[in-house]
Design brief:
This protein is α+β, with helices and mostly antiparallel strands and 258 residues long. It contains eight helices and seven strands; from the N terminus they run E-E-H-E-E-E-E-E-H-H-H-H-H-H-H. It has helices spanning 38-51, 123-130, 152-162, 169-173, 180-191, 200-214, 223-227, 235-257, and strands at residues 5-14, 23-33, 74-75, 78-79, 101-105, 114-116, 119-120. The strands form two sheets. Strands 2-1-5-3-4 form a five-stranded mixed beta sheet. A two-stranded antiparallel ribbon has the order 6-7. It is elongated. 36% of the residues are buried. The structure holds FE2/S2 (inorganic) cluster (FES). FE2/S2 (inorganic) cluster (FES) binds at residues 61-64, 66-71, 87-89, 165.
Length: 258
């Protein structure tokens, strides 16, 4: 396998905290391997900065396997960078040419305030999940996995929605800062399975109304679908909207009975 070394220029957003106005700083990274991941390249730069007695660049990461959704960088104006269906942690330096100038910014969205440098606060997503991202199930011994038959197309579509890692790229890519793809993926995942039926309409109503407290509105740009590292389809938004509309009728009836 070839292992080219390349020199790159980085323009990285530095910001000391939410109140700081922030600015770009330029760094040079020499002889970085094609095989290095994008985050390894930032580790390499941070080691360089620490050796020089400078402050390391703060950025989010955890699994580095495209699973946890923690990594979150806007690379040359694209959420997660130039490779489709790829989270930042799975992007490799072979995607960039030697001498390239790479601009790295945090997610830019009013609902995701910057904590420091490239790290943002995505706890607005947690508020949406708290508002309805659960199911009611009987506790006790684990039931047999096949006790509730689920048709294959339903299981497949629930799994497609469950692939959302909650990284926030959809919000960062949306010109309105909307979180409809994230919220709808979570609603579609639970609302399509038999175990999620008990709270189906309450869940759709609570999660969408919680989302509206923090995020902008969807106007069908479709940028979210393009930026999603897990290829979640915007079809889930139509499903969630349909359940929300039904919820406004069903939940009203429910509330009038109690
Ligand atoms: S660090 Fe976990 S998805 Fe990128």
């Amino acid at each position: 396998m070839s292992n080219h070394l390349k020199d790159i220029i980085l323009k990285i957003w530095r910001q000391n905290g939410p109140q700081d106005s922030g600015r770009f700083e330029t760094y040079k990274v020499d002889e970085i391997s094609d095989e290095a991941s994008f985050l390894e390249m930032l580790d390499y730069l941070n080691e360089q900065l620490i050796t020089e007695g400078k402050e390391a660049i703060v950025f989010d990461h955890d699994c580095r396997e495209g699973i946890c959704g923690t990594c979150s960088l806007m690379i040359n104006g694209q959420a997660h960078g130039p490779e489709r269906s790829t989270a930042t942690c799975q992007l490799h330096m072979r995607k960039f040419s030697s001498g390239a100038e790479i601009v790295i910014e945090p997610w830019r969205a009013a609902a995701f305030p910057i904590i420091k440098d490239l790290m943002v606060d995505r706890s607005a997503f947690d508020r949406i999940i708290e508002s309805g991202g659960f199911i009611t199930s009987v506790t006790g011994g684990a039931p047999d996995a096949n006790l509730i038959p689920i048709p294959k197309p339903v299981a497949d579509s629930a799994m497609d929605s469950a692939a959302c890692i909650g990284c926030g790229a959809c919000v960062a890519a949306c010109p309105n800062g909307a979180a409809n793809l994230f919220t709808s993926a979570k609603i579609a995942h639970l609302n399509s399975l038999p175990q999620g039926q008990a709270e189906r309409y309450k869940r759709a109503e609570s999660m969408i109304e919680k989302m509206d407290e923090f995020f902008g509105s969807c106007t069908n740009h479709g940028e979210c679908e393009s930026a999603c590292p897990k290829e979640i389809s915007i079809d889930v938004i139509a499903l969630a909207n349909a359940d929300y509309r039904k919820a406004k009728l069903k939940n009203k009836k429910f509330i009038s009975r109690i």
